[in-house]
Every structure is written in structure tokens, then in C-alpha cells.
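Duplicate of #3305? Posting structure anyway:
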């Protein structure tokens, strides 16, 4: 099997990886044990690279149209795929071993993905601010300029320390409180009890993003919510992951 080519965004961090959106797809590749190699694309170069490849446009987090990562090229089939959901669907269909949508759960997990994104969107400017701190300089400059346009707000107003930041923390906590209620329904290690699914990969990717971009004390705060279950979930998932 020829290794798949996965496009991801580098950073100043050791180990490079940081993005929660791209982690979703990378974690599926790793969980399924598929061989892959990374093409690193700076944030500011995504549109240019994707245009050259002939990728399709997507929706950006602020609602505008644009080119996005994750992007997957599967030389075994010739498939070129944009968007984490479509990549998950493609990998499941093409490489069905170790299913990520067990028991016909795809529709429900799609709804879960959308609801979780809505909960996250309300608080997202805080982790976006932290993300710019770990991006390489060119990308951080591009990111700040384009997000100011997209959100029609000055970057310094995104999540300044004080009441606005506190509100973002409250919304983040709300997202995890809601997730805890959902996880408690089956009471197992994973959302579907003892069966791992793409729902857990979505949560693990968000946690991965927070762990990588937030300051240590901020990550510790999340890691300790609900008796440490979120740090444990990420660690449990990492044990299932066979990627780079
Ligand atoms: N719905 C898309 C969202 C992906 C997304 O927003 N990716 C960001 C990187 S984390 C991006 O490529 N943004 C390009 C830009 O803002 O110019 C997915 O799940 O793949």
C-alpha cells in the first residue's frame, strides 16, 4: 500500500502538530493504522497550495468561503478530499477495518459533530488567540489579519483578559459539562460505552488542540474538570493511535 499524503499545518511547537481540525483526520489515519506521510503547509499558504492541487473550497470557521486543511491525497485510489467529515467518511468506506462509525452510527455522529462545533464556536476566540502564539510568524500575521476581517472585530478584542475571557471559559466549561452528560449515558470509557467511535476522535482532537495551544495552567484547568476525565480520555485515545 502506498502511504497516503496528509496535509497539516506546522507550528513553533516541538512535534509541530497543534490543529484540532486536522487532528480529527490524522487520528482516524492513526487509529485505522494506515501508513501516511505529512505535507506541511503554513496557514498563509493553504489557499495557494490547495488551488494548485485542484482542491475544492470549503467553509471557514467565520462562515466565509475558503480553502482549508485537513486535506487528504490517497495515491492508492486517486482520491483528493477536503474537509474532516468527508475524509472520515472516505477512510471508513475505503478502509473499513477498525470502524469509526460502528453500529450504523454515522448519522448520529454527524449530528454530534455539528452540536459540539456549535458549543465550541461560542468560545472559540479564546483558543484562536492562543493558537496564534504557537504559529510561525508569517502564518500568525496572516491569521490575525484574516480573522479580523472574518469576525469583523479587532484581534485585541477577541478574548481580552477580563469579563470576555471569563465568558469564554464559562462557555468552554459548558461544552464539557454537556459532553459529560452525554458520556455518562453509557458510563463507559467511550461515548458508545466500550466501543470507540469517531465521536471520541472528535472530542480527543479538541482536547489535543487545547493541550497544545493553551498555557499550561489553562490546560490543567480543563484536564482537571470532572475528576480528570478529559485528560484521561485523550490519554486513552492516544493508546489506540498508531500514527506518527
Ligand atoms: N469544516 C472544516 C474546517 C477546517 C478548517 O477550518 N481548517 C482551518 C485550519 S484549522 C483552515 O484551513 N483555514 C484556512 C483559512 O482560514 O485560511 C473541516 O472540518 O475540515
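Output from current build:
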Amino acid at each position: 500500500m502506498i502511504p497516503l499524503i496528509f496535509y497539516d499545518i506546522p507550528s513553533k511547537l516541538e512535534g509541530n502538530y497543534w490543529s484540532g481540525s486536522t487532528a480529527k483526520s490524522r487520528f482516524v489515519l492513526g487509529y485505522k493504522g494506515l501508513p501516511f506521510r505529512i505535507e506541511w503547509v503554513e496557514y498563509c499558504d493553504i489557499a495557494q497550495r490547495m488551488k494548485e492541487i485542484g482542491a475544492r473550497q470549503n467553509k471557514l470557521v467565520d462562515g466565509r468561503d475558503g480553502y482549508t486543511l485537513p486535506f487528504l491525497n490517497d495515491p492508492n485510489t486517486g482520491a483528493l478530499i477536503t474537509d474532516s467529515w468527508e475524509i472520515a467518511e472516505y477512510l471508513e468506506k475505503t478502509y473499513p477495518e477498525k470502524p469509526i462509525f460502528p453500529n450504523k452510527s454515522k448519522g448520529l455522529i454527524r449530528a454530534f459533530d455539528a452540536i459540539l462545533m456549535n458549543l465550541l464556536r461560542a468560545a472559540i476566540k479564546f483558543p484562536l488567540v492562543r493558537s496564534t502564539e504557537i504559529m510561525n510568524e508569517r502564518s500568525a500575521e496572516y491569521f490575525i489579519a484574516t480573522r479580523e476581517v472574518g469576525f469583523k472585530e479587532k484581534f485585541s478584542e477577541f478574548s481580552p483578559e477580563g469579563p470576555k475571557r471569563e465568558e469564554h471559559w464559562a462557555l468552554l466549561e459548558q461544552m464539557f459539562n454537556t459532553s459529560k452528560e452525554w458520556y455518562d449515558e453509557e458510563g463507559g470509557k467511550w461515548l458508545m460505552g466500550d466501543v470507540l467511535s469517531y465521536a471520541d476522535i472528535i472530542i480527543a482532537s479538541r482536547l489535543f488542540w487545547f493541550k497544545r495551544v493553551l498555557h499550561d495552567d489553562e490546560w490543567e484547568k480543563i484536564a482537571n474538570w470532572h475528576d480528570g476525565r478529559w485528560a484521561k480520555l485523550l490519554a486513552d485515545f492516544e493508546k489506540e493511535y498508531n500514527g506518527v
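Confirmed duplicate; merging threads. The chain has a mean pLDDT of 96. Residues 19, 21, 46, 58, 60-61, 66, 68-70, 83-84, 146 surround glutathione (CB under 6 Å).
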